[in-house]
Structures are given as structure tokens and as C-alpha cells.
Design a protein that fits this description.
Shape: globular
Number of strands: 18
Largest sheet: 5 strands, parallel
Distance between the termini: 57 Å
Structural class: alpha/beta
Strand order of the largest sheet: 4-3-2-5-6
Radius of gyration: 21 Å
Strand content: 15-25%
Number of helices: 14
């Protein structure tokens, strides 16, 4: 029976020959991830009341990324609790080393064919490695921690093909903002599978953006079938894949809910207006809008490849005098890599202010939030009202190219124009 990648993984996880969309099944977990915000502070007391323990410490990863570094006594206590719980439970703990969706991949924890769950809505990032990874709340995480299982309704698969090649100054972030505007954010119980020449040409970091922002589409998850790039990334992470990636591909004749085909070469940089990623349209359709603060951060916009995009625009230029640009790299390892290859020097010479790695302003928990009346342009995944500080702030979304260009000009502009000019 022909099956999609999502159906193959779920069938394997619940030990069935096949599954069908709409079925309710119970699947065994290969990996459970939670962070300091939705993790031990939410589940520790429940486990204690139940007298229950973690089903398999080797399959649980905890990441402290939302409250780091501590900014007040409450956040310091949350981080201390997270450290104590992780040590007592015997699970792997990444403490202030980066954003959960990034350090999981840096550590090679997510592999093709895995069925994974994370206590965060952007957990579908793991789908970039050919896994099925979905986000759930703390109640489901508590049950999964004890049983090692999770029930779910088998989603329908939506194929999204991007053929051709992205133009200079256009990135995976622009693809996702465009999809939010055209496909909407109400795609519940669907698994988006991305393919096409433009997707296959993408780095693993860019594929992670596609899968990460599937959450903005309202989908259960996003996925890219594993290929040679996936295998190379896992080798680099120190955890080579020992299975057969040919097993973890959708069958060509598998039934899908829908198939969408696009030409990547026709896509312009996209900007999402407040207060939804679905308010996206081409940057060329905007009048100049002054920016008080540009923010390059978060799991979807501050990986090494994102810093490289920003540096491409900022090299030899200066941030506008009435605008500030804050940059919070997605992990310590990426900060180190950006320092080694000269990227940080380019960013800081342009006037950018470097922040510690972490979820920070994106989650409204750290440095970089917006005050009432301020206008921001951010690489984060969502711009819901009040998420990044004041409900009276106006937050726009764009790619690292667009945010860097906006910081140089002091207003929203087309990054392709700066990239085409000598600095």
C-alpha cells in the first residue's frame, strides 16, 4: 500500500503495517524534548504526585533556552529547578547552549524515520531531518514522559513543491511567509512535506525554517525527506545515521490531501505586517515604514546561515542613526563559528548589538522586547500582538536579508537593492 513519509513513520511507531489519515493511534516515542519554560517547572510536581519516573532517560532531552540568562529571581529559580530535575532524572540537559530546536540538530538527536515530540510549538523543526516531530502541551508531555507513548490522529499529507531556484536576497523565510499568506494558518491535522529543486538545494538550516514555520500554517508538522545532505549533517553532528534513508521517502503514488507547485525564481522578499504571519506580501508592495529596532534572533532566524545573510547586507555599511539592530545567535556553537569566520566582526562593525543566545525577545522573556509605539522588523516566526513586548508595538516579520537591509536604511526596504549596490 502506497504511503506518505508521515504515514510510514507513524505506522512504524505504532507497530502497524499501515495507517490511514484520520485514524487515532498510539505511537511509541524515539525522542522527547522539553525546555525550561514548559518542562520541569510544569511536569516535576505532577510526576511527584503520581510517584512516576521517566520511562527512558536516554530518550529525553531538556534544553534551557527561554529564561536564559536569568533576568530576575523568578527566572533564576526556574533555571535552578530545571538543572536539579534534569540531573535527578538522568536526562541530557543543554544548559544555556542554544535554542532547543537548534541544539537538538547540532547534537544529532533527530534522525530520519524517528517519531518525536517536543514541548514547544516549533518542534516540527525536527522534520528537516526526515523525522515526524510535533509539538504538544505540558499535560501531554507529562503522560509521554511516563509511558513513552503519545496518541494522535494520523494527519493528511500536503505536498509543497518549490522548483527553480531562489533569487539572491530571497530565503526559506520568504517561502514560509508567502505560504502563510496564500494557504492560511488553519491547516490543522495536516503534515506538510516540502520538496522540489529549490528545497533540495537548501542547506539543512534553511530546511529547518520550512519545517519550523509549519507551525504558523497550523499544521501538525513539516517534513523534508532525508538525502545526502541530511546524512552529511548527522556525520558532522557526530551521530551518523545507520539506517536506510530509501525507506523513509514518500511513495510517488501515495494519496495526498493536496499538492501545491511553485516556481522559486518568481518569489520576491516577503514582509508580514502586524499582527500575523498571514499578513504577508511582497516587500515591493510596502511604502517605506520607519524601523526603531531590527531583531535577528530565534530558532527560525538566527542560525549561522541567517547570520551570513545579514552579514552579506551589512558588510561595509552602518546601521541607520535612528535605528538599532539586535542580534541573538541561535546557539553558542553558531556564535563561535560566526566569530571564527569573521561574520561577527562584520555585524558589530556595522553597529549591531550582540545578545546572548536564547529565545529572548521572541518569546517575550528576555532582552530585546519592544515598548509601546515602537516599530520593529524581526526574523522571528510570529508577530502576534503583544508577543514581543508591548501590545502597542508594531512588529513586522522578514528574512535576515530584509531585517539587515531595514536596519541600514532605517525603514522597510527591498534587500535586493542593497545587495546589488557596492557597499
Amino acid at each position: 500500500m502506497a504511503a506518505t513519509l508521515a504515514e510510514k513513520i507513524i505506522a512504524h511507531a505504532c507497530q502497524r503495517d499501515s495507517v490511514s489519515p484520520g485514524q487515532i493511534v498510539t505511537a511509541s516515542l524515539d525522542l522527547l524534548m522539553m525546555h525550561d519554560s514548559g518542562g520541569p517547572r510544569r511536569v516535576a510536581s505532577r510526576l511527584e504526585q503520581l510517584g512516576a519516573k521517566v520511562w527512558d532517560p536516554d530518550k529525553v532531552v531538556v534544553v534551557s533556552d527561554h529564561f536564559v540568562p536569568a533576568t530576575d529571581l523568578e527566572s533564576a529559580e526556574i533555571l535552578a529547578l530545571t538543572r536539579r530535575w534534569a540531573q535527578q532524572a538522568g536526562v541530557r540537559h543543554y544548559d544555556m547552549l542554544g535554542i532547543c530546536h537548534v541544539v537538538l540538530q547540532e547534537g544529532g538527536h533527530v534522525q530520519p524515520g524517528m517519531f518525536c515530540v517536543g514541548g514547544d510549538s516549533h518542534s516540527p523543526s525536527g522534520g528537516a531531518y526526515g523525522a515526524f516531530m510535533m509539538g504538544v502541551g505540558a499535560t501531554d508531555i507529562t503522560g509521554a514522559l511516563v509511558t513513552g507513548e503519545l496518541w494522535l490522529k494520523v494527519p493528511q499529507t500536503v505536498r509543497v513543491n518549490w522548483d527553480g531556484a531562489l533569487a539572491a536576497g530571497v530565503s526559506a523565510k520568504d517561502i514560509m511567509l508567502y505560504l502563510c499568506a496564500t494557504l492560511g494558518m488553519g491547516n490543522e491535522n495536516q503534515a506538510f512535506e516540502y520538496d522540489g529543486a529549490a528545497v533540495r538545494a537548501m542547506s539543512m538550516s534553511e530546511r529547518m525554517v520550512l519545517c519550523n514555520m509549519s507551525a504558523e500554517l497550523g499544521a501538525e508538522t513539516g517534513m523534508v525527506a532525508a538525502d545526502e545532505k541530511t546524512l552529511a549533517a548527522l556525520v558532522e553532528a557526530g551521530r551518523p545515521f545507520t539506517g536506510d534513508i530509501a525507506r523513509w521517502q514518500s511513495d510517488p503514488d501515495a494519496a495526498c490531501l493536496a499538492e501545491h507547485n511553485y516556481d522559486a525564481g518568481t518569489l520576491a522578499p516577503q514582509i508580514a505586517a502586524p499582527h500575523s504571519p498571514a499578513n504577508s506580501r511582497a516587500v515591493t508592495e510596502y511604502e517605506p515604514i520607519h524601523i526603531d529596532q531590527g531583531y535577528i534572533g530565534a530558532c527560525t532566524g538566527a542560525k549561522l546561515s541567517d547570520l551570513h545573510m545579514a552579514a552579506e547586507v551589512l558588510k561595509g555599511r552602518r546601521i541607520a542613526s535612528n535605528t538599532r539592530l539586535l542580534i541573538a545567535p541561535a546557539s553558542v556553537a553558531m556564535t563561535r563559528a560566526a566569530a571564527a569566520d569573521g561574520t561577527l566582526e562584520i555585524l558589530t562593525e556595522a553597529g549591531a548589538i550582540m545578545l546572548p543566545t536564547g529565545c529572548g525577545a521572541c518569546a517575550g522573556m528576555g532582552a530585546g522586547m519592544y515598548s509601546a509605539g515602537e516599530v520593529g522588523l524581526s526574523t522571528t516566526a510570529r508577530n502576534f500582538k503583544g508577543r514581543m513586548g508591548s501590545a502597542q508595538a508594531q512588529v513586522y516579520l522578514g528574512s535576515p536579508y530584509s531585517v539587515a537591509a531595514g536596519a541600514v536604511k532605517g525603514y522597510i526596504c527591498d534587500p535586493r537593492e542593497l545587495l546589488a549596490e557596492p557597499a
